[in-house]
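Support case: user asked for a sample of complex input and structure output to validate their parser. Sending the pair below.
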Amino acid sequence: MIDGRERALAAFEQMVLIRRFEEKCAEVYSTGKIRGFLHLYIGEEAVAVGVMAALSADDNVVATYREHGHALARGLGPGSVMAEMYGKATGCSRGRGGSMHLFSTPHRFFGGHAIVGGGLPVAVGLALADSMLGHDRVTVCFFGDGAVDEGEFHESMNLAALWRLPVLFVCENNLYAMGTALERHESLTDLCVKPRAYGIPAENVDGMDLFAVEAAAQHAVSEVRRHRSPFFLEAKTYRFRAHSMYDAEAYRSREEVAEWAQKHDPIDLAAAQLERRGLLDPAARAAIEDRVRTAVQQACDEADAAPLEPVADLLRDVLTPEAR
Amino acid sequence: MTTLTYREAIRVALSTALDADPRVLLMGEDVGRYGGAYAVSKGLLERFGPERIRDTPLAESGFLGAGIGAALGGLRPIVEIMTVNFSLLALDQVVNNAATLRHMSGGQLSVPLVVRMATGGGRQLAAQHSHSLEGWYAHVPGIKVLAPATVQDAHDLLLAALADPDPVFLFEHQLLYPTEGELDEARGPARIGEALVRREGHDVSLITYGGSLGKALAAASELAAAGISAEVIDLRTLRPLDTDTVCASVTRTHRAVIIDEGWKTGSFSAEVAALLAERAFYELDAPIARVCSAEVPIPYAKHLEEAALPRVPAIVSATLELFGRG
Ligand SMILES: Cc1ncc(C[n+]2csc(CCOP(=O)(O)OP(=O)(O)O)c2C)c(N)n1
Ligand SMILES: [Mg+2]
């Protein structure tokens, strides 16, 4: 349980921020100010928020293209994330990355990877560096159930286990890889058996329950820190929106989506728990919504006003500039 | 100044780097206990231990990607891939991560990674161990591509790669490993992006790199006997290409023959030819010629392999043709 009223409420507020931020993104997308792929995390917020709550500022984070939530939960400013989606020079990747490639070295947020499975070897390497340089860090690597199909997943499990590297692998199992349901892309649908086959301890958790995720992540992170070896956490979750901005959703029924949204919305669940604990009342909830609305609007206003990167700087940062 | 082999020169550079910088490590399949598939790292495990001379599982994408992450995390990894054909399994990490992370992060990340691998044919290893794919790598912005052809360069270019803040790929032609030459260890890192004139001449420029340099020099000697003075350019770096040196040479000689073990179609030799067409067209007194591998997966049988690879007589006759003496 996220202890302390303030921490619990802050985590809750982050979930609300992610939700409203992304709803706003979807709205702005239709105006054309945001283009490209836009993979919404709506429905899965408890996973990123719960896991980030278990990290320290010095830990490393590697995420996927569905990473707005992770970036915000890690503390990147909504303004710099929104500006990135607008393709502006003030964006956290100077407009080079867009929605799928958010980076921030001050937050040790190493992207934003849009090759399914491609971030895992990089996370393994970050942990290798920490292990050899004697840093007490944990590297957390997020990926989807689809990434488990990839060879890079298996190579990374083996490397992390073989070399005993401090990586927390967080599999966000939302039951679909784009339009392919889990049982149509994995021969064994209990994903925890795969890391265990490499000797990596694995647990799963209800990814819709913020407090359960946070507790599981605390445990997982402490195991990684204590043994300086990998751990695998499967968060069972569900995406409420299309894979990217729009798809026909021919691969799942409206009823299925509606049922998840009604019964398992992570924000509703967390709110109910907080209310039961006497930490949240309608007035406090309204105040959170107000603050979030203002922050999101401000992010959009700033992004709107921000300058574009000059085209003269197109080739900047392909290579390190030569020292003069 | 000492005489040693190309593989020993690489080993000297590796040892120097490992001695000088505790962040340097060598990782790859069989680099440790086995001593390296081409015996480059022989003896290093004993000196530097298994953490820094790190045997990896057979997982090219996994360990090259781990090299990228380790570079991001503050190490100076040197990843060895046994052969360029196997590097294809890691191409995702090369093209999608190593080459992109700096730009995609708006300049926040830097990937000081060195990747070495054997390339080229000539040892009857057939079509899955003999190709020359460095030209593919040279296609990709965000990485640098080196091809040392001499003992001195094997050493100096590796040191240059290690001193570079960006991902650098070294392609070592497998026939070069046992070749001998002089090494002046004190010279220090070479300059990346600098081609060299290996033999001066005024009638024609033979432009080449890596495993084909020796063939070009041999052809130049034969041409001299036929009264043709050939200049031999060793590109050394395929990306960034030293366009000035190439164009300056052709401006002197007015003829160009490009020798490359890659195939012709869609190739690095085509890139050099296009460069000359764009930048030195009015200097040319004859069409640009190319001597490359035949358009075939490199075959096993000795006579077929020889027929598939660029050969000295082919370079000589392609050059003579430019003088109407074909
Ligand atoms: C190597 C690779 N193959 C295919 C794709 C196209 N693609 C993008 S997301 C995706 C599904 C991934 O599903 P999952 O890992 O479960 O993540 P989710 O989108 O559900 O969060 C696919 C097939 C890709 N980006 N990279
Ligand atoms: Mg999924």
